[in-house]
Amino acid sequence: MSRRRGRRGADGALVLAALAAIGVIVLLALTGGCDLLDPARRRVRARIRDEITRSASERRWFRRSRERALVGNYDVAPLVVRFYGRRGFNPAWCTGRGPKSEAFALAGALDSASSEGLEEEVDSGALRTRLESLESGLLGPGPEPAKLADLDLWLTRSFFKYAAHLSTGRLDPARLPADWHVHPRRLDLVRVLERGLRAHDLPRRIAALRPPEAGYARLRDVLERDRAIARAGGWPLVTPGPPLRRGSAGPRVRPLSERLALEGDLDPARAHGSVFDAALASALRRFQARHGLDTTGVAGPREFAELNVPASARVRQIELNLERWRWLPDTLGDRYVLVNVPAFALEVHEGDRVPLRMRVVVGRELSRTPLFSDSISSLVFHPSWDVPPDIAVGEMLLAAQKDPGYFAKNHLRVYQKRGREARELDPATVDWRTITPAEFHFTIKQDPGPDNAVGRVIFMCPNPYSIYLHDTPAGHLFSQTERDFSHGCIRVEKPLELAECLLRGKRGWDSLRVARALDSLGKRTVFLPRPVPLHVLYWTAWVDENGRTQLRRDVYGLDSLLTAATS
User: Fold this and answer.
1) DSSP state, 393?
2) 414 - beta bridge partners?
3) Which of 148, 156, 147, 162 is CA-nearest to residue 82?
4) 59, 81 in Cβ contact below 8 A?
5) Cα–Cα separations (whole angstroms), residue 447 to 193, 378, 383, 435, 444
6) What is the value of pTM for the model shown?
7) What is the DSSP string of 394-422?
8) Predicted pLDDT of residue 566
9) Which residues, 6 or more positions from 302, have their beta carbon under 8 angstroms from its beta carbon?
10) What stretches of 291-414 show up as alpha helix (H) in DSSP?
11) Which residues contact 178 (CB under 8 A, 6 or more apart)?
12) 282-326 pLDDT per residue, tens
């Protein structure tokens, strides 16, 4: 009897184990975990494989069809091919019975595209509707495999498109007719997607694709505020007319105060008077400082023009600068020098601190300062100046033709040919009036001294564009509001302070020794303790470390160029 009971118990256990195994298989089939009992999933995979095989054969056509520099589906096709190839063409977002939770998670992540300034991304509302239409009950008939396959491919393409735009930008700056030479981030978006699906944390990984610098996050936060103002009808128009200053009264004062209150320059509680008082003058000076205007506290034509830029245009300006943030590498460095061309300003950044700021002079419209990243490796005190050929031919030859004594008056040396074969000439022995630009085979140098065009110190950052930071004898130019006067190089307002800052930590080079080196007459090269990254960039909108939104004029027209390229 006991043996019979033992056999019955063993048989019962086997039956239970078999039922459990069948249950696991059924569950896996229903959830897309295996193909054994899920022919619909096999058909989804087959459809994806067919589509991928077809698109892989068309990749060359996709590459040739780039009429614009935007990242479209044709750009992400190689990523889609690689992603599905690595998973055996299995669907990523669907089972044989409908969308998985990851599909809805992606739809939620795409909701944030607008807040990143990426308005053209997938309509997440339409996506949710499509996902819900393909859902089915646990035991009811599933959606058509072809529709699920198309949805799976669409979601994958949408992920790669958004991930590419968010991490490295909608547009490749190398395709713009602009001197942008900053190396972008390099990301393996296929691995990002694979890991996000495996860990079920796709929204977090998508958020991590944003530019990591604090400046991007601050500007992104301001975007929503200005969008809300634009949606509410924008700010009031300040009617142009005679200047408004402290003591002015009349109907034009109130819209001015309301306008300044909307951006936080004036306490809203004081934005309803019709008299221009001290509080309004202070608010206007804050507005002027944020727009790079002279802080006079008087509203004139320049102020009226800036005040009346539509809120929608400011929103667009912020979006364009968010795009330029995406063109940057993963990090600017723990300690770096930043030159912002539209602001005519230089900052030294050390972590979250900005210990040094100064004005700079940048290239004029016809000799723009290129935008690039490199490193300052050394300083040269009392350098000589090797005149660039374009300046020698384009300016100095013409000056010498008008005044034969031009070279001697400006302490310029003239050499026949270049390099070791160069032979110094007396410029008075050359009839400059007979020399054409094509016949100008001379090298021009300027000795160190008070008239030297690069001043007492030059900050060496070897780069293909021959652009350097340097001192200047033309210090009066720093008093100008807009300072685009150079041939491309960057003239710095405070060379002593910048030299001290960069040489900090170098043994024997305290501030006193730096001052003596500047006051001496001997040429000397001093290497930095370690190279300091230099970034010459183009921000027309940014938020400073104090939370103030800064706006500047589009001096080189790059905002307009970017708008046209992304329209």
Assistant:
1) I
2) 425, 444
3) 156
4) yes
5) 59, 20, 8, 24, 10
6) 0.86
7) IIIHHHHHH-TTHHHHTTEEEEESSGGG-
8) 81
9) 293
10) 301-307, 311-325, 389-391, 397-402, 406-409
11) 371, 556, 558, 561
12) 999 999 999 999 999 999 999 999 999 999 999 999 999 999 999
Largest distance between two CA atoms of the chain:
131
Contact criterion met (CB below 8 Å) for 317 and 215: no
Confirm if 160 and 79 have CB atoms less than 8 A apart: yes
Q: Token pair of 296, please?
A: 């006079």
The larger pLDDT score, comparing residue 322 to residue 20, is at: 322
Query: 483, 496 in Cβ contact below 8 A?
Result: no
pLDDT in tens, 66-105: 434 445 545 788 899 999 999 999 999 998 888 999 999 9
The answer to whether 494 and 345 have CB atoms below 8 angstroms apart is no
pLDDT in tens, 475-500: 899 999 899 999 899 999 999 999 99
Rounded to whole angstroms, the Cα distance separating 500 from 487 reads 26
Please measure the distance between the N-terminal and C-terminal CA atoms of the chain and give it in whole angstroms.
87
What is the spatial distance between Cα 328 and Cα 344, in angstroms, rounded to a whole number?
20
Continuous segment of H or E residues that includes residue 442:
strand 442-446
In tens, the pLDDT along 407-460 reads: 988 889 998 876 667 788 888 888 889 888 888 888 899 888 888 899 999 999
Chain centroid offset of residue 199 CA = 30
Q: H helices then E strands: how many in the chain?
A: 20, 18
CB count in 10 Å sphere of residue 509: 19
pLDDT in the model for residue 492: 97
User: Position 391: which residue type?
Assistant: I
Question: Tokens in use for 12?
Answer: 């019962």
What pLDDT shows up at residue 335?
95
* 477 C-beta neighbours (distance < 10 Å), count: 17
> Which tokens sit at 68?
């614009």
Which residue type, as a one-letter code, is found at position 235? W
Distance separating alpha carbons of residues 316 and 322, to the nearest angstrom: 10
Outline where DSSP puts E strands in 270-384: 335-340, 345-350, 353-363, 371-381
